Amino acid sequence: MSVKIAVIGGGSSMFVPGLIRRLIEISCFEDAELRLMDVDAQRVEVMRELGTQVASAEHRKLTVTATTDRREALRDVDFAIVAISVGGMAAWETDIEVPAKYGVFMHIADSIGPGGIFRSLRNTAVVADVARDVADLAPSAIVLNYTNPASANAMAMAQVSHVRSVSLCSCSPLPFQRSWLADLVGVAEDEIVLPLRVGGIAMAATPSRWCVSGRRTRWSGGPSTPSALCRTAGRIGSSSSPSSSGWNDRTRAGRRACRCATADGSTT
What we know:
Blueprint: E1 4-8, H1 16-25, E2 32-37, H2 41-57, E3 62-67, H3 70-74, E4 79-82, H4 88-101, H5 113-137, E5 142-145, H6 150-160, E6 164-167, H7 178-185, E7 192-199, E8 206-212, E9 215-216, H8 233-237, H9 242-245
Parallel strand pairs: 1-2, 1-4, 2-3, 4-5, 5-6
Antiparallel strand pairs: 7-8, 8-9
Helix pairs in contact: 1-2, 4-5, 5-6
């Protein structure tokens, strides 16, 4: 049975192309149905055409449809993704400029402070309505909210329906930048092993565990001195006890196994 995915806000040229690329790269979404819904018929049609062409060029089975009817898009789906921005860029500009006029300067203004409140007043009611629609049309579906403010929207979805829902965010790119991580713990860039483990949502995410080739790192709010506690993959792999060998993080780059530290400094 093919997976049915609805994207509310499916006309987004920032979010949808990346999603399409991921869907055609992951084998379990072969022959999936992607339903793009947006209030802007022209934009959503452009994204539908893009998705169709990309899938065809990659010789993958992905059916992409477009609609301006939210309930039509949500009927019997397995996953509903909410990626909206009520008011668009013009509203976002006022979220930044109005607080700045009164001395409150915000560089993003989409999750906390006055800007976060403004955005919540526009977006949260709509996100809650989507959750209600999913409860009615696809009660077994999972709602993945990608709309800020993530925390407020998560609470709203939980309060208005019993459908499974969660708020997500792309967060900062810093946890994926070797140069930043290397500077943080005081090692060379080529010693950083990616990917690391990150927890939290929106602007409250933090690295909880990461590895340095041949070393351990510890989060202490600033630079720390790594200690040589990591062994080679072969030596760790030869241990019969997972608890004694530490946590193995096998990556595509080097496929090393490292003993790593959690955010509170304890090893696992």
